[in-house]
Amino acid sequence: MIKVEWFYWLCGVFFVLIALQVLNDRTNPKRIGSAAFWGILGLSFGYGTFVVNKQAPAWLLGIAVIGLAVLAGSGFPGKGEERTTTPAERVHLADRFGNKLFLPALVIPVVAAIFGAWLAKVKLGDGTPLLQTGSATIIGLGVASILALIVGMVLLRPQTGAVGWGKNATQSPGVPLHEGRRLLEHIGWAAILPQMLATLGLLFNASGVGKAVGRVTDHLIPKGSLIAAVALYCIGMAVFTIIMGNAFAAFPVMTAAVGWPLLVQQFGGTPAVVFAVGMLAGFCGTLCTPMAANFNLVPAALLEMKDQYGPIKAQVPTAVPLLACNILIMYVFAF
Fold it and tell me: Is the model's pTM score more than 0.85?
């Protein structure tokens, strides 16, 4: 059986290697704290396996999370001297490889879909599933990423010891690791924000926030008003997503408060439609919040935009009418 934790370990190794690179980078004025940030994150991936298996205390992992938050609040991780291609070199490479540059990116969705739709159903001779139950999509994404890396290496053929794509980079099999580090330094602490926010959603649900919100909604929704319940669920999904930055974090809270007890149980809505459109309503909130760093702040950083909130300002005029459309779609098709 292929286990999902193997890919978590691989992610951990990647972050540890990044930490070692940063530690040896004398051009990074924050190299000690930055290396600590990525190192703690990397070790947490491996340690988490022992916590899940009840072989190690969870409180150490909690301390690690607090440590990451303290480092992020203190201005870590920082950036070192950037070594990568120049704009002219990127244009040259684009002309040289053309549309072939899209092949590594296209490998990921194709392979992930194969794992999720087909290999998830495959069983070994003794009846054991080929893929760990419930993790086929994540395993597929991990395998797809590895295959995409291999395709990229074969396509671009970096040569050990040669001068890089240009005068600013070293061309070798270690280029993916160096480029990964460069991107992570651009993104910074926001790279782990989605994980933190998703966990926050689970904590909110476990602590009864959903039930508390449900009691409040009982006083807000007119008795028997379907449209009011639909609007509250969709708008609540968007608002909680704006607060927490992640629709997956907002989903358990609003579904426990409104989605399941009112829309499904009381009004008889089709669960698949209610919850799918509810997630789309949450994504409208994603378009409007800096908390969704991987969608809004990271692109601004990678594109070196002058206005870091530029993507949000461009997306809000689409998000608001789209939210209204989701309310209408749920009201018409879910009941």
Answer: no
Element (H, E) at 162: strand 162-163
**Can the peptide bond before residue 77 be classed as cis, meaning omega within 30 degrees of 0?**
yes
- Please name the amino acid found at residue 10: L
How many Å apart are CA 230 and CA 263, to the nearest integer?
A: 7
SS3 245: coil
41, 15 contact by CB (below 8 A): yes
Q: Hey, CA dihedral for 264, 269, 271, 273, is it positive or negative?
A: negative
CA distance 276 to 59: 35
Per-residue tens of pLDDT for the chain, all 335 residues: 788 889 999 999 999 999 999 998 888 888 899 999 999 999 999 898 888 888 989 899 889 989 998 998 888 888 877 777 778 877 888 888 888 889 998 999 999 889 888 888 888 877 888 888 888 888 989 999 999 999 988 887 765 443 444 444 444 667 788 888 888 888 888 788 777 776 776 777 677 776 777 777 777 777 778 999 999 999 999 998 998 887 877 888 888 888 998 899 989 999 999 999 999 999 999 999 988 777 887 777 777 788 888 889 999 999 999 999 999 999 999 98
| Cβ atoms of residues 29 and 79 within 8 Å | no
